Amino acid sequence: MLWVKAYIVNEYSSKLLEAAVNELSRLPGIGKKTALRLALFILREDTSFAENLGRAVERMRREIVFCKKCNNISDADLCDICSNPKRDENTVCVVEDIRDVLAIENTAQYNGLYHVLGGLISPIENIGPNDLNISHLVQRLNTENIHELILALPATVEGDTTNYYIFRLIRDFKLKVTMLARGVAIGDDLEYTDEITLGRSILNRQLFEDSMSRK
Predict the structure, then answer these.
(1) Structure pTM?
(2) pLDDT number for residue 20
(3) What is the CB neighbour count within 10 angstroms for residue 117?
(4) Cα–Cα distance, 104 to 197 (Å, whole number)
(5) What's the fold here for domain 86-213?
(6) How far apart are CA 66 and CA 190, in angstroms?
(7) Which tens digit of pLDDT belongs to each residue from 50-98?
(8) Which CATH number fits domain 14-63: 3.40.50.10490, 2.40.170.20, 3.90.180.10, 1.10.8.420?
């Protein structure tokens, strides 16, 4: 047993390699073996690859901002979607995070704007409405000419809780509130839903109030 422990401690012949593996393994879904494989790949590539990778990550962390209108990540004050005059400004799709924006955009079935909440209401994780971009959403409803609000949150307990909270908060506004058709399976995140299913769920969206009456 002592020998095994010693082997694990001295697994890396280079402290520099070990440091790189430790940092890479902090990424979600990346274990030590995958981190080692990535580190060795970087080591085998030309030095310029590591330099470009480092610069890209550093610039991303330092220069990316949140869109002032929809809270999507952006390179400028307004993201490319919000600043595009060809988008339908009367329709806003409420999503959990940037991954859902990318998933919906990949369907090519939606041409409106977005509002990124930055998470979901989850009492277990101590995430309440004030921790999300919900007040900003209400502000947008007061200042923008929005006709339809699409609640495109995941079909989970947290997603449904957030849907109901938003719906009750905005029920006095004169606008159409819809949700994705249940082609998206219960418990699934949008980012893992195939593009055809997600696209049909957007096109066949239903009134949120109707979904409440069936529960």
Answers:
(1) 0.76
(2) 95
(3) 22
(4) 11
(5) Dna Topoisomerase Vi A Subunit; Chain: A, domain 2 (3.40.1360)
(6) 21
(7) 999 999 999 999 999 999 999 999 999 999 999 999 999 999 999 999 9
(8) 1.10.8.420
Give residues with Cβ within 8 angstroms of 98, minimum separation 6: 72, 73, 116
Closest listed residue to residue 157, CA positions, set 193, 187, 119, 117 = 187
CA torsion, ordered 50, 52, 57, 61, to nearest 10 deg: 140
What is the rounded CA–CA span in Å between residue 4 and residue 164? 54
Helix then strand then coil, in percent of the chain rounded to 5, is 50, 15, 35
Which two three-digit tokens encode residue 90? Answer: 């009367």
- Amino acid type, 20: A
Q: How far apart are CA 124 and CA 80, in angstroms?
A: 35
Does the fold of domain 86-213 match that of domain 14-63?
Answer: no
Task: Quickly state the pLDDT bin for 31 (edges 50, 70, 90).
Answer: very high
Scanning the structure block, which residue is given the tokens 């790949």? 41
- Indicate the domain borders of the chain: 14-63, 86-213
- Choice among 8-22, 39-53, 123-137, 198-212 with the minimum mean pLDDT: 198-212
